[in-house]
Amino acid sequence: RAKLNGRDQMVMFNQSIRDEAQERDRIENSLRMAEENGELEVYYQPKIDMVSGRWVGAEALLRWTHPELGRVSPVKFIPIAEECGLIGPIGEFVLRRSLAQMKELIDEGHDLTVAVNVAPVQLRSPYFTDRTLGILGESGYPLHRLELEITESGVMESPVNIEQQISPIRDEGVRFAIDDFGTGYSSLSNLATMPFDTLKIDRSFVMSMAESEDRRIIVQLILMMAKQLRMQTVAEGIETETQLAALKEWGASYGQGFLWSTPVPFAEFAAKVREQASENALAAKSEPSAA
Ligand code: C2E
Ligand code: MG
Ligand code: MG
Ligand code: MG
């Protein structure tokens, strides 16, 4: 293959920047219409109690199907939504939709919680607290069954401000989780004073546990620290029985991962919850009663 000269390389470089900018503009423009066009859907990934194995809730994860581009990953479009000011309405859509859907199951008597992601940019809006409280109030959803997730790096950008923003919501019984823990740079003293109820260990730690004793020790230390701070723990991205066994032994409260289920549409999540509940009811009936 002929070697490209410097000028050709520069042309290609400029072209690839233009392509990227064009794609970004395209995503931004279609994202403005995505909700209206019915292209947004909330998927649910179950959260599992490590001791009982029971499905105790779900994390709500946004899915966008663009008419031409097809499925666009949230890893790609959420940062764009944050930059162009669309994350506010999109975040509110996810919150409303997930509260309404999970309320259906809770009203049927299922003992469930839902976790919804909040982007750092949403928290920086002076309207975040009031608007969120408004949505929660209108939803009729039992607020102690809601958890809001904020990434560790998001929290560290402005810890004082975040505390002021979330305290009035927390006072209503909503729990807060620190997401992707281990990928940001929070100091331990910060973590101890912040109003978080749950710590979610990032998937990268769970993934690398098999690699080295050092990684395993770090995961164990995070779990011990959370316990000392009286926080619940969720291990993200559990894919193998080996990971599950270790995390269970080290006292992680909950797990999430492809080992149980990928994120699925609400109907699929609901069907599985109902199926499990009727299996449990049958099992309870066939057991001799304690009395
Ligand atoms: P996250 O909040 O940390 O969500 C967990 C991500 O890990 C999800 O990716 C989930 O599908 C994936 N995951 C779960 N278990 C496994 C596993 O066992 N193996 C592997 N390989 N992956 C697993 P997803 O749905 O693509 O979302 C990526 C990120 O996009 C989320 O990370 C979150 O930061 C953001 N996101 C998604 N939905 C929303 C939303 O409604 N609002 C905001 N602000 N961010 C969202
Ligand atoms: Mg999350
Ligand atoms: Mg996470
Ligand atoms: Mg993560």
TrEMBL record:
BP GO terms, sorted: signal transduction
Molecular-function GO terms, alphabetical: cyclic-guanylate-specific phosphodiesterase activity
Protein name: Diguanylate cyclase/phosphodiesterase
Species the sequence originates in: Roseibium suaedae
Domain EAL: 24-277
GO cellular component: membrane
Domain of life per record: Bacteria
Coiled coil feature spans: none
Covered residues, full protein: 412 to 702 of 702
Keyword line: Membrane, Transmembrane, Transmembrane helix
